[in-house]
Amino acid sequence: MPKRKTIPTFSDEDEERAFWEQVDVADFLEGPADNVLLDLKRKQVVKIVVRVSPEVAKSLKRLAQRRGVSLQTLAGEILAKGIKALSQ
């Protein structure tokens, strides 16, 4: 069995999307790729500015790094969960 390729680190979603459009995903999997479905469509987003204290920004950045996501992604997830909880 050929050695599995290593997935590089990407600086942003556009770079990652461009990479996956040019390669065969099966080269990066350990087993058969028969049941793999990828959705690489770009999600529609709106950029907003939210002002927070330096302490909140530092905590958010640290949590995002721990989870392996960007600060913006984590902030969006937290906002979405908060809005959902408040809407119930």
Amount of beta strand: under 5%
| DSSP helix fraction | 40-55%
Oligomer: single chain
What sequence of helices (H) and strands (E) makes up the elements?
A: HHH
User: How many domains, in number, for the residues?
Assistant: 2
Total helix count? 3
Q: How many E-type strands?
A: 0
Largest sheet: none
- Shape designation: elongated
Can you walk me through this structure?
By secondary structure, the chain is mostly helical. The protein has two domains: 1-43, no CATH class; 45-88. It is 47% helix and 0% strand. The chain contains three helices and no strands. Helix 2 crosses helix 3. The mean pLDDT is 85.
Secondary structure topology:
Elements lengths: L12 H10 L31 H14 L3 H17 L1
List keywords for this structure.
single chain; 88 residues; mainly alpha; 2 domains; 3 helices; 47% helix; 0% strand
